[in-house]
Structure formats: structure tokens, C-alpha cells
Amino acid sequence: MGRDERQLADALAAKEVQLKAKELQTAPLRGLDKRVDDARAQVQAFYAKRIPPNYSSVDRRIGELALKDSVRLSRVQYSQGAAGSDLTEISLDAGITGNYQQIMRFVNSLERDQTFFVIRGLSLTGQQGGLVNLRLKVSTWLRPADAAASGLPSIQQAGDERSTAPLASQGKEGR
């Protein structure tokens, strides 16, 4: 093999190594469009399964869980955040009274419910004769049109700057 042929063979081998390196670097990107579509479909399935259709279904579900777990809700106030592109946060602030087991069952029921609830805060406000009084802050989300139809006061009016949507709906790659 002559010197020119050896140089060409070496150059070809170097290019093949570079090609293999680029193929390895780009491998994670293969099928990305399908994975993005799958992720969007999963988000939509989550919305369909876990995001309530309207405000009254949120209120009804909270009441059903409170009744089932034998706790008493008082001073219940709902408000909503600014409309996001996919979802609008609905906040509940309420007093809750019951014995320790009842309250823990209620909190557990909220966390495990089909409707997507996020417990934002739970603080002791008093205790009397075996009953515990707590302040409960819970969030859920509605689609913006459903939230607008609810007539709830806006959180932004009260100066709360919390995010208006869960992390899963943040970001709109490729839209």
C-alpha cells in the first residue's frame, strides 16, 4: 500500500470514527417527536381523568370526603388564580374539625382521590375535648373556560403570586 493510499485509509477511518461518535451523540434524539406526542397524550389523559370538569364538582367532592371521614368543614373559601394556558388553579381555604384519626383519614382521602388535589398547608388552630381544629389549604385545577364560568374571586386580587398551573403543564415545546 502506497503512502497516499495509507493517508486516504487513515482519513477514512478517522471519518468513520467521527460518524460513529455523532451517531452515538444523536441516538437519544431519535424518536423524540413520538415521545413528545406520547407525553402530550399522557398529559391530556391526566387532565381527562384527574382534573375536575367544573367548580361544583370540586365543592361536591370535598363535601363527600368530609362526610365520609366524619370531619366538619367551616369557613370554606374558594378563590382562583390567573388563567393559565392549560389550567387555572382553584384554591380552598377552610377550617376542619374532627378527632385526629378522622382528620388524618380525610387528608389521606384528599391525597389519594381521583380528583387532583394538592395540600398546600395544614396548621393547628386549636384543640378542645379530643377534637382538633385545623386550617386547611388545598389546590386543584380547572380548565380556564370552566374556571371563568365559576365566578370565583381571583387570588391575584389578594396579592398571592403562586403559580397558576402544576409543573406538568409548564412549557410548550414545539407548539
Can you describe this structure in just a few lines?
With 175 residues, this protein is an alpha+beta fold.
Notes on the structure:
The protein is an alpha+beta fold and 175 residues long. It is built from five helices and four strands, in the order αααββαββα. It folds into two domains: 3-49; 52-164, 2-Layer Sandwich (Alpha-Beta Plaits). The chain has helices at residues 3-26, 32-50, 55-68, 100-112, 144-150, and strands at 72-80, 88-98, 118-128, 131-142. A hairpin with a 7-residue loop joins strand 1 and strand 2.
Topology record:
Elements: H1 3-26, H2 32-50, H3 55-68, E1 72-80, E2 88-98, H4 100-112, E3 118-128, E4 131-142, H5 144-150
Antiparallel strand pairs: 1-2, 2-4, 3-4
Low-pLDDT sequence parts: 157-175
Q: In percent, how helical is the residue content?
A: 40-55%
**Mean residue pLDDT:** 85
| CATH homologous superfamily label of the largest domain | Ribosomal protein S6/Translation elongation factor EF1B
Question: Strand-residue fraction?
Answer: 15-25%
Strand order of the largest sheet: 1-2-4-3
In the CATH scheme, the class of the largest domain would be Alpha Beta
CATH architecture of the largest domain: 2-Layer Sandwich
CATH topology of the largest domain: Alpha-Beta Plaits
Q: How many beta-strand elements?
A: 4
Q: Write the H/E string, N to C.
A: HHHEEHEEH
**How many strands, which pairing sense, and closed or not: the largest β-sheet?**
4 strands, antiparallel
